[in-house]
Amino acid sequence: LGDLYLQDNAPTLALPELQTAVELSPEGLQILVRYGQALKLIGNIDESREVFSKAYHLEPNFPGLAQMYARILIDIGELEGAISPLEMLINLKSSQDLTVYLDYARCVLSLNKLGSTKVPPMKALIALNEVLQIDPDIAEAKALIAETLAANGDKEMAFQAYREALDTSLIDDKNWLESLSYGFGCVASSIGKHDIAIAALQEAGQVNPSNPDIFKALSSAYLAANLPEDAIRSARNVLVINGDDPDNLAWFATQVTNLIRNDKPDFTSSPSAISKTISSEALNALAKAIQLAPTRTDLLVQLGNFQFSIGALTEAQETFASIASFDFATIDDLKTA
User: Fold this and answer.
1) pLDDT digits (tens, 9 = 90+) for 167-212
2) What does pTM read for this prediction?
3) Do residues 117 and 111 lie in contact, with contact meaning Cβ atoms separated by under 8 Å?
4) pLDDT tens digits, one per residue of 259-293
5) In this structure, are residues 171 and 180 in contact, taking their beta carbons and an 8 Å threshold?
6) Which residue intervals of the chain are DSSP H helices?
7) CA neighbor of 230 nearest in space, from 198, 188, 208, 260
8) What is the DSSP letter of 264?
């Protein structure tokens, strides 16, 4: 009866019938799967995940179960858990649904961006190549291949892959245009193609002018191209977008340090007032970051190092000495100071 209700798209009516069936047959796979589906349809995601998990561990090869289980794990952000059922489907070639391969690649890349090294990016590449063998016109696969190659450090190949992806219909979508332009710009910058990097990152910034990461990358590209005034202008944009984030403030100070240390720009001959202002801007940024995050000793260390680098030796000494007065300072903090 519960199954019939589900077929009629009435999960609320199906739920009590399926719950009774589960109580009578707690390891009945078909019943568990249908019960999990009903729970998901009414929005009870956590309990649905538990039911799918139980069914999957009873019989992972039950038709359609691995994909449903992986999907609910992805939906709730448990990407690492989704890897196993997706890998099983790919290895057994038990699904002709290209979504399985694309979901797997997305999970691997997302985990990689979060710092996980459990699944190497090249495993995503294998899945994506399978997609293109089945259907060479899947544009998203081309885009994900570019991201995979970049994540794996294959910059030259990633550069070409991004070019191919930017030549697809994906660029009609603003999110993809931003992502691809940003990725292309970062890769181009890393292999010394600074003009291309700047153009790509400028386009990404036009698509989404509220993404600080774009302007961080653009600032670095300008600096590498020996365009210091453009570099500091883009760095300032980061603080315009979100100047209340201690990490952004610390990054700005680091970028100013890079500008000062860079041998190429000659600030003394610059017609602008850049040489007179960037040091004080960096000091102000670090002071604000410390105010926002007073227990972050790494910011104090950065401030002391910056003061030392600009010749403010007394202030640097005072900053380093102050770290010892904080109860939350660790031995490593004190050694660094």
Assistant:
1) 999 999 999 999 999 999 999 999 999 999 999 999 999 999 999 9
2) 0.84
3) no
4) 988 754 454 444 444 556 899 999 999 999 999 99
5) yes
6) 2-7, 11-24, 29-41, 45-58, 65-75, 79-92, 98-113, 121-134, 139-151, 155-165, 174-190, 194-207, 212-224, 228-242, 246-261, 274-292, 297-309, 313-323, 331-336
7) 198
8) S
